[in-house]
């Protein structure tokens, strides 16, 4: 698939006279690949300026006590210089084992894990179930498909507000629950119910993507495999376990990884569902945002430190996930 | 394949493969109908509430049917900053799309076709950047942008959005370029085209569908971006829809009826747009995932 770069032609416009010396290799490489580098240059520059520099800057900020009162800022024509100072790793120490470490970091950490696992499992199981139902000869399949992806089609920032109205104290969900004689929880006030509500809304939003991806995977499984299994007398469950699931493994590993990353980083749903209330239902991302922007004074250093920790968690998870996938591949 | 099931199963009439028995069929329809209703209900409810003239009507939904009116829509269109928001959203989403797709196209091609030192590293960085939690970049970006005076400007927001859009579009386009036969490039080179010439004159025109998908995705993502827009835009008239919609709900006063009407006005075009392209977006997203 990959075209190796052809040897440099004699008339390469930028070719230079060979100069012996330690720079030889760099120059050679430059002559051979200069157009590849020219082509990736825009993205490398954009990412360097917009991601690399802020990342380095952000890491530096975590080593200071920067907040909105001592940072450099421009108000009208006045420029105020930064006065924050370097404090080393104190921020990290405070987050991880300071006096309020449990309340502020670890409780949110645990909830974030619970949130991610629950949501991804629900997304996957419901998505797979619906995909299997849709993957049959069925009247009205197209219509079902169109309706079922609606939660993905409508922007999240719109649908979350619909849920917020429905979950309000005297909203339609509680009215319905009341009518059939069930308890009417205060979804948006009680911490446990806030968490339930958040998981519910996120599940509603995330299922369609899983369903569509898995449906694509199901359709690519060879029909003959099912036929062969049936002839061998495999039950429906055995066919599911030994034909469907292995057939889906490559799609599954991709969507589960994406699902974990997206759910772990999910900002909009919790932020819009609860506004600035519900400290207990905040996952680490929204909690970090709140430290940096949802309070006065804004604690930039702390917020950035949370960000760095979050990135570290994701990188560790992803590399373990890859290692686990690779090992399973070798065993299979 | 064959029209007569009897050749398949001689003797007793059998169901063809993939055909359901009556119980299973009813069960499937019931499940899918319930699921569709759950998917549909919040949206229908929002549309219904948008017809109620009073901001507390959501508490007494039964009364809305009798006094349904389009007044909320009229009010939103004439008395709020709706059209300012529309303009801001278009500027930000359009700008992000243009900038993102243009800078990503050549990279997608280079990563797809050429082997050069740093190739794999670059692909890893592109992949990793997509997984960045917003919390990592938002603070330093805010700090840098307030020094540069880029907070509360659409240009600033476009730059911030590009941090996620550019790597994603590069991946998506790499996936698309991979599907274009390499023989075309070789033929182009044979005919004396430079690598840039091949890309520009041969491959890019063929990649138009891929570019369109990348553009759609970039547009929809920038359109619906909440965190950065809520942080970087301060002035009411510069809000994008994602921020503007929040402004109906403050701690003291919640105008649910107006919010619902605005939400419907925003959702209709985007949803239609989404339905047109969704098939391609799914393929693009999963292709850009693990299979590097």
Automatic annotation (TrEMBL), chain A:
Domain of life: Bacteria
GO biological process, one term: transmembrane transport
Main location: membrane
Low complexity biased stretches: 1-12
InterPro entries registered for this protein in UniProt: MetI-like (IPR000515), MetI-like_sf (IPR035906), UgpAE/MalFG_permease (IPR050809)
Region Disordered: start-end pairs: 1-23
Keywords of this entry: Cell membrane, Membrane, Transmembrane, Transmembrane helix, Transport
Cell compartments where the protein resides: Cell membrane
Cited PROSITE patterns: ABC_TM1
CDD domains assigned to the protein according to its UniProt record, in alphabetical order: TM_PBP2
Residues covered by the ABC transmembrane type-1 domain: 109-321
Homology family: Belongs to the binding-protein-dependent transport system permease family.
PANTHER family in alphabetical order: ARABINOOLIGOSACCHARIDES TRANSPORT SYSTEM PERMEASE PROTEIN ARAP, BLL4140 PROTEIN
Protein name, per record: Arabinogalactan oligomer/maltooligosaccharide transport system permease protein
Organism: Nocardioides albus
Automatic annotation (TrEMBL), chain B:
Assigned keywords, A-Z: Cell membrane, Membrane, Sugar transport, Transmembrane, Transmembrane helix, Transport
Annotated GO CC locations: plasma membrane
Originating organism: Nocardioides albus
UniProt KW Disulfide bond keyword: no
Gene Ontology MF term list: ABC-type maltose transporter activity
Gene3D superfamilies: MetI-like (1.10.3720.10)
Domain ABC transmembrane type-1: 86-277
Name by which UniProt lists this protein: Arabinogalactan oligomer/maltooligosaccharide transport system permease protein
Topological category with respect to the lipid bilayer: Multi-pass membrane protein
Family the entry assigns: Belongs to the binding-protein-dependent transport system permease family. MalFG subfamily.
Pfam families: BPD_transp_1
Subcellular location: Cell membrane
CDD domains tied to this protein: TM_PBP2
A GO BP entry: maltodextrin transmembrane transport
InterPro entries in alphabetical order: BP-dep_ABC_trans_perm, MetI-like, MetI-like_sf
Annotated TM spans: 23-48, 85-110, 122-142, 154-173, 211-234, 254-277
């Amino acid at each position: 698939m990959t075209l190796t770069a052809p040897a440099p032609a004699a008339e390469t416009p930028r070719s230079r006279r060979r100069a012996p010396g330690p720079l030889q290799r760099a120059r050679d490489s430059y002559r051979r690949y200069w157009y590849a580098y020219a082509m990736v240059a825009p993205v490398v520059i954009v990412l360097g300026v917009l991601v690399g520099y802020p990342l380095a800057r952000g890491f530096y900020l975590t080593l200071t006590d920067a907040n909105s009162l001592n940072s450099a800022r421009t108000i009208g024509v006045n420029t105020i210089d930064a006065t924050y100072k370097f404090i080393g790793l104190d921020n990290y120490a405070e987050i991880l084992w300071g006096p309020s470490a449990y309340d502020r970091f670890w409780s949110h950490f645990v909830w974030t894990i619970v949130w991610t696992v629950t949501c991804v499992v629900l997304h996957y199981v419901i998505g797979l179930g619906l995909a299997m139902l849709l993957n049959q000869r069925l009247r009205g399949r197209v219509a079902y498909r169109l309706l079922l992806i609606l939660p993905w089609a409508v922007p999240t920032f719109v649908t979350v507000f619909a849920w917020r109205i429905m979950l309000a104290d005297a909203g339609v969900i509680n009215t319905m629950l009341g009518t059939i004689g069930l308890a009417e929880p205060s979804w948006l006030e009680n911490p446990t119910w806030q968490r339930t509500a958040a998981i519910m809304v996120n599940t509603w939003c995330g299922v369609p993507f899983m369903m569509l991806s898995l449906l694509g995977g199901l359709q690519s499984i060879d029909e003959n495999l099912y036929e062969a299994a049936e002839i061998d007398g495999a039950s429906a469950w055995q066919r599911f376990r030994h034909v469907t699931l292995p057939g889906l493994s490559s799609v599954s590993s991709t969507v589960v990884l994406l699902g974990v990353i997206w759910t772990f980083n999910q900002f909009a749903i919790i932020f819009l569902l609860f506004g600035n209330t519900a400290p207990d239902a905040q996952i680490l991302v929204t909690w970090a945002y709140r430290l940096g922007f949802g309070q006065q004074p804004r604690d930039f250093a702390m917020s950035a430190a949370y960000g760095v920790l979050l990135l570290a968690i994701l990188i560790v998870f992803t590399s373990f996930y890859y290692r686990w996938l690779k090992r399973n591949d070798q065993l299979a | 394949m064959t029209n007569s099931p009897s050749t398949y199963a001689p003797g007793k009439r059998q169901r063809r493969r993939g055909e359901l028995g009556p119980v299973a069929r009813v069960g499937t329809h019931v499940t899918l109908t319930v699921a569709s209703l759950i998917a549909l209900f919040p949206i229908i409810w929002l549309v219904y509430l948008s017809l109620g003239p009073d901001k507390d009507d959501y508490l007494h939904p039964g009364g809305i049917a009798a006094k349904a009116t389009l007044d909320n829509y009229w009010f939103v269109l004439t008395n709020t900053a709706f059209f300012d928001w529309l303009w801001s959203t278009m500027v930000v989403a359009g700008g992000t799309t243009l900038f993102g797709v243009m800078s990503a196209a050549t990279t997608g091609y280079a990563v797809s076709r050429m082997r050069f030192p740093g190739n794999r590293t670059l692909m890893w960085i592109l992949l990793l950047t997509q997984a960045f939690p917003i919390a990592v970049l938002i603070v330093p970006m805010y700090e840098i942008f307030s020094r540069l005076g880029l907070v509360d400007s659409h240009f600033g927001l476009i730059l911030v959005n590009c941090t996620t859009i550019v790597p994603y579009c590069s991946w998506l386009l790499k996936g698309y370029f991979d599907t274009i036969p390499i023989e075309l490039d070789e033929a182009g080179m044979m005919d004396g085209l430079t690598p840039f010439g091949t890309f520009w004159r041969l491959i890019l025109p063929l990649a138009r569908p891929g570019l369109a998908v990348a553009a759609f995705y970039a547009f929809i993502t920038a359109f619906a971006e909440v965190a950065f827009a809520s942080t970087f835009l301060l002035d009411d008239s510069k809000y994008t829809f994602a921020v503007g919609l929040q402004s109906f709900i403050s701690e003291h006063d919640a105008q649910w009826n107006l919010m619902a009407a605005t939400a419907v006005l925003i959702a209709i075009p985007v949803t239609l747009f989404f339905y047109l392209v969704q098939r391609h977006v799914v393929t693009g997203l999963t292709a850009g995932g693990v299979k590097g």
